[in-house]
Amino acid sequence: MTIIKVLYVDDEENNLSSFKANFRRLYEIYTATSGAAALDILSQTDVHVVISDQRMPGMTGVELFKKIKKFNPEPIRILLTGYTDIEALVDAINDGDIYRYITKPWNDIELNNGIQNAYDVFKTRRELKEKLAELQKTNDELNRFIYSISHELRAPLASALGVINLAKLDNVYSDSEKGHEYWNLMEECCNRLDYNITSTLQYYKNSRYTNIKEEVHFEKLIQDLIIIHKLANNIDDKIKFEVSIDQTEVFLGDIFRIEIILGNLISNAIKYQKPDEENKLIKIDVKVNLLDAVITIVDNGLGILNDHLNQIFNQFFRVHNQKGTGLGLFIVREALAKLDGKISVESVVNSGTQFTLRIPNQR
Amino acid sequence: MPPKAPKPNLLVIIDDSSFDLRINSGIATHIKVFTQILCFSSAEEGLDFLVENLDNPQIYPHLILLDIQMPEMDGFEFMKRYDKFPDNFKKGSNVVMLSSTDDLQDITRVDSNKNVFRLLKKPLQIEQLKAIAEELYLLD
């Protein structure tokens, strides 16, 4: 156990000696006969509790405490005073300069309790400070970790995808049926890993970035997203997109999060199509008014079992036998929550799914 | 839109990853636009070479593919120095930066540099490189 270090300040030598006599077995005691001498000791020693007499020539106890608080707020301060001084102390107590005052003449038990309580406060505050520093450190490490995921992990993956591109260009795999299959499998695996890294990053960024207000043009945004996600999912033009945008009002919102939300939903609509459906169709409908943007995304794909509907927004929930990280819709929900938006879903197995979103216009 | 330049000659690729140098020079070969491709594995080497040949019309980099994340001197440091090159040199030479992420910070930093023509996410797709060449040069 740490020995509690106590500094006692009093201009009367007698008081200092009797304090020492009473407490020297319990605490490591420092004494000073003036405010100036006390400050001198504090500048060299890590003291836990400071006890000072109020009435001293040169510098009063309250004046001393104000000074101590300024250069090191850590030591807990106890003032010894007569009843007559109390008027003058009110401000100092309210300002937090003094942890406790004890009336003179003090009795051993009361003063000892005061010191013990003061040390408890000291300890708790110091622990809190250490925990905060620890937390800050963990947070910084997490930031660096995420940065390294985005750069160091993705860089070699991009290289691998580059090699596959080059292999295609050089016609390496046209020679054999198997070669063709293997290269495609490899590309699919790399793309999936790429998607996982990207969605993990999206989740992280969503929890961090502050909300930015920008003008959103849904027509352009949705057309861009369709192109990106068609590319990312390696599909040809066999899926038909019907996009209808009704936006005459200006919409202000957090374009970064809206992009994450719509991108994930469009990507899902593309991914969970029925493989042998002749007329694959995705309908996207946006209506913008003064208050909200209401967006529906309808597909005629695989659909979701009723039992699963209330779980799809959970982290790492995945429908059996389907690719994906189980992060997409979870990220959608988290991002929407930051925008005060709402989402609902209706689905019939083997006939399709409809997501309806409402995102507030932040004008 | 500034007028397109005649068919380009030299492509310079700067990347610390030997894989990406190999891959991107391979892809550039396929578009059959450049007569010469030079690779450098660090920003310093690339800069040294460009500075030494500033007055040599035989060696004029019409296009520079520049990786962002490199040790010691990164792509942005490179651009700080490249910005000091004479204006008539920079006029016909275009820098395309490559990043392994779509980091927002990278994007805003690239946007603010007038000497960067575009930012692309790795892996470089042949269609992207073709489109850039068609945008910049008169090809037959």
From TrEMBL, chain A:
PTM sites of type 4-aspartylphosphate: 53
Q: Which UniProt keywords apply?
A: Kinase, Phosphoprotein, Transferase
Q: Which InterPro entries match?
A: CheY-like_superfamily, HATPase_C_sf, HATPase_dom, His_kinase_dom, HisK_dim/P_dom, HisK_dim/P_sf, Sig_transdc_His_kin-like_C, Sig_transdc_resp-reg_receiver
Q: Where is the Response regulatory domain?
A: 5-119
Q: What EC numbers are recorded for this enzyme?
A: 2.7.13.3
Recorded catalytic reaction(s): these are: ATP + protein L-histidine = ADP + protein N-phospho-L-histidine
> Is-annotated flag, keyword Transmembrane helix?
no
By its UniProt entry, which SUPFAM superfamilies does this protein fall under? ATPase domain of HSP90 chaperone/DNA topoisomerase II/histidine kinase, CheY-like, Homodimeric domain of signal transducing histidine kinase
Keyword Transmembrane helix recorded: no
Cite a single Pfam family from the UniProt record. HATPase_c
Q: Where is the Histidine kinase domain?
A: 148-363
Gene Ontology molecular-function annotations: kinase activity
Q: What is this protein called?
A: histidine kinase
This protein's species is Niabella ginsengisoli
Per the UniProt record, the lineage of the source organism begins with: Bacteria, Pseudomonadati, Bacteroidota, Chitinophagia, Chitinophagales
TrEMBL record, chain B:
**Annotated Response regulatory domain residues:** 10-137
Residues bearing 4-aspartylphosphate are 67
State the species of origin.
Answer: Niabella ginsengisoli
Assigned keywords, A-Z: Phosphoprotein
- Kindly give the InterPro entries that the UniProt entry links to this protein: CheY-like_superfamily, Sig_transdc_resp-reg_receiver, TCS_response_regulator
**Does the keyword field hold GTP-binding?**
no
What name has this protein been given in UniProt?
Response regulator
